[in-house]
Amino acid sequence: MAVPRHKHTRSSVGQRRMHIFITPVSLATCKKCSKPIRPHSICKHCGYYKDKEFINVLGKLTKKEKKIREKEIKDTQKDQKLGGGMSMEELSKK
Ligand SMILES: [Zn+2]
């Protein structure tokens, strides 16, 4: 079995390990439903990418699930519209 030749001090071990870490995932927000998504990828919640539908999200759902999902999307769109209006007003005030 290989045996280490010298003792590794806590300091040198720490210096080696300071570069070992997991970087947080960078997230963008979906333009349609404003959910956090990976950049340059289709939104899994609404199936849209660059204002175009690529996945029919509601297709495989049952009637009940469909209703709930449609409501969610509508609510988020309303919130987005309200939020956008508010921010524009705030900007004009400033
Ligand atoms: Zn979306």
TrEMBL record:
Pfam families in alphabetical order: Ribosomal_L32p
Picking any one GO molecular function of the record gives: structural constituent of ribosome
| Keyword line | Ribonucleoprotein, Ribosomal protein
Q: Which InterPro entries match?
A: Ribosomal_bL32 (IPR002677), Ribosomal_bL32_bact (IPR044957), Ribosomal_zn-bd (IPR011332)
> Where are the compositionally biased (Basic and acidic residues) regions?
72-81
Single Gene Ontology BP annotation: translation
Q: Where is this region: Disordered?
A: 72-94
Its cellular-component GO annotations read: large ribosomal subunit
Q: Which HAMAP family match?
A: Ribosomal_bL32 (MF_00340)
User: What family, per the record?
Assistant: Belongs to the bacterial ribosomal protein bL32 family.
Name this protein carries in UniProt: Large ribosomal subunit protein bL32
